[in-house]
Amino acid sequence: MILKLLLLMFLCHIVDDFVLQPVCLSKLKQKEWWRTNYPDPLYKDDYKVALAIHSLSWAIMIHLPFIFMTEVDGGIIWITVILDALVHYTVDNEKANKHTLSLVADQMIHFLQIEITWFLLTLI
CB–CB of 83/66 below 8 Å? Predict the structure, then answer.
């Protein structure tokens, strides 16, 4: 059961980070896309909304196995959802806007994130 949870978390990651994230969303997460297509200062921070929406969606998605298959306290799950969303936001921003991470590094960090979350939630 415990390993099934980890495998399902990885599957949920793949679904949310690649299948459910259309090309338009990956572009909307880029500050440069907004500068080019909507140069008005009104839109200068809109990329942050796209990053936040995707990060929260991803964090909820990777927690679905624990939500539906375990008795882990919902409050603890929401704490890890928020922490995972914040880390995912930061990592994706580094890749999409600061260009300090490659896709490989981005994915390795997300996989490590999943493993740490899985480990913490299985300890409870």
Answer: no
Q: Is the pTM of this model over 0.85?
A: yes
Q: Which residues of the chain have pLDDT under 50?
A: none
Q: What's the token pair of residue 106? A: 């981005």
Q: Give helix 103-123 / helix 46-69 axis angle, nearest 10°.
A: 40
Phi, psi of 71 (to 5 degrees): -105, 20
Contacts of 92 (CB under 8 A, 6+ apart): 29, 51, 54, 55, 106
